Amino acid sequence: MNEHKIIEVENEKSESEDNLIIESVNKFLEKDVKPYVKEFESQDKYPQEIADKMAELGLFGATISPEYGGLGLSAVTYSKIVENVSAVWMSVSGIFNSHLIMCAAVERFGTEEMKRLYLPKFATGEIRGGIALTEPDCGTDLQSIKTKAKKVGNDYIINGTKTWITNSVQGTILAVLVKTDPYITPAHKGMSLILVEKKDGFVSRKLKKLGYRGIDTGEVQLENVKVPISNLIGETEGKGLKQILAGLELGRINVAARGVGVARASLEDSIEYSKVRKTFGKPISEHQSIQIKLAEMATKLEASRLLTEQAAKAYDSGNRSDLQAGMAKLFATETALFNSTEAMRIHGGFGYSPEYNIERYYRDAPLLAIGEGTNELQKLIIAKQLVSEG
Asked: Which residue(s) pair with 31 in the sheet?
């Protein structure tokens, strides 16, 4: 009985602390992000001050264990933060998401020495980075990567090209998926994940995009980059694909939460606009055609939020969560696409203008259906899990 009460008190304390963090993030968004979104987004300018303030809030260590200096937030709390950030400006959430996937790989699979060396600096944002998986000729099919790491003495020599890499320009380190044995079959047995800090031979350039502006998505050229063998994540080669796929479960929950944020913003802006915009002598919110759109948007939004929360709870349980994460990512991102399109229609010509946020939601949403594994891939993941469970 007493033990049960202690557990309840601890849970209440944890929830209270998490709520304080969410409240702090919301205040930061209102004061330091919302007033500057249009400026940074229109110029495709990296929001350095915003990123630095996120570091002060501890967001670069959001899911890192307190043992290594992080906040140790649950995926449930983390996904709520991502939703709120994305409802204001989706690009900002990408700055710490890619970073935290890298952190998760190190914390789950790295040696204790690697964890002690890197995680405290990752948590404070002193070192910021991300993951480098995709290549010019390789996206969903990661086993086809061509970037190689050759062991020479006590170092790896890495050569290859990575593309669409978040934090590759402003960041200082990447967890790079490479082939340490390009000849073994199946190919995944020869793939490894290595931490690569910026140094000679590491050249990155920012890529232009339709949406998701401000954040530094780049192409990375790695030419004879020398990395200590100790930077191999895990103690043996050939585990890289498995390691990064485990990290992508958190990434897909993040992207699902981003979808919820964009879908929410699209709905909220549409409700507000429908109350003030008048046609045929009354607000358009009183027209059935608009009411039907708002009802569909709201229902899909709520379903997306519940699926995302379910996936986050599965992740927090420590069990495999790729089925739930795949479902959440698929549905929430399709909802972001749906809601942003309906918002554009509700706003009419004004939705097509950068004076309103709708056109930004409309440009940002398509990325969510592509990033962290395309939605077509999510359907295959879901189906395979269903068949294997049967």
From this structure: none
CA distance 111 to 118: 11
Quote the CA–CA distance of 250 and 271 in Å, as a whole number.
Answer: 31
* Predicted local confidence at residue 7, as pLDDT: 37
Question: Average model confidence (pLDDT) for the chain?
Answer: 93
3-state class of 293 per DSSP?
A: helix
State pLDDT tens for residues 210-266. Answer: 999 999 999 999 999 999 999 999 989 999 999 998 888 889 999 999 999 999 999
Q: Residue 193: name the closest of 95, 140, 114 by CA.
A: 114
CB 377 within 8 A of CB 140: yes
Amino acid sitting at position 250: L
Left, alpha or beta for 353 (phi > 0: left; psi -120 to 50: alpha)?
A: beta
* CATH numbers and ranges of domains, the chain: 2-124 (1.10.540.10), 129-239 (2.40.110.10), 242-389 (1.20.140.10)
pTM above 0.90, yes or no: yes
How far from 50 is each of 19, 34, 70, 225, CA to CA, in Å? 21, 11, 19, 31
H-state helical runs in 68-111: 75-109
Taking the CA atoms of 210, 211, 212 and 214 in sequence, report the sign of the dihedral they define: positive
Give me the active site residues, please.
372
| Residue 8's pLDDT band (cuts 50, 70, 90) | very low
pLDDT of residue 372: 87
DSSP characters for 272-287?
HHHHH-EETTEEGGGS
Helix (H), strand (E) counts: the chain: 10, 9
166: helix, strand or coil: strand
> Quick one: CA dihedral 55, 61, 66, 67, positive or negative?
negative
Tell me 142's DSSP state: G
CA distances from 107 to 68, 165, 258, 309, 383 (A): 9, 21, 24, 23, 30
Instruction: Tell me phi and psi for residue 194, to 5 degrees.
Output: -130, 135
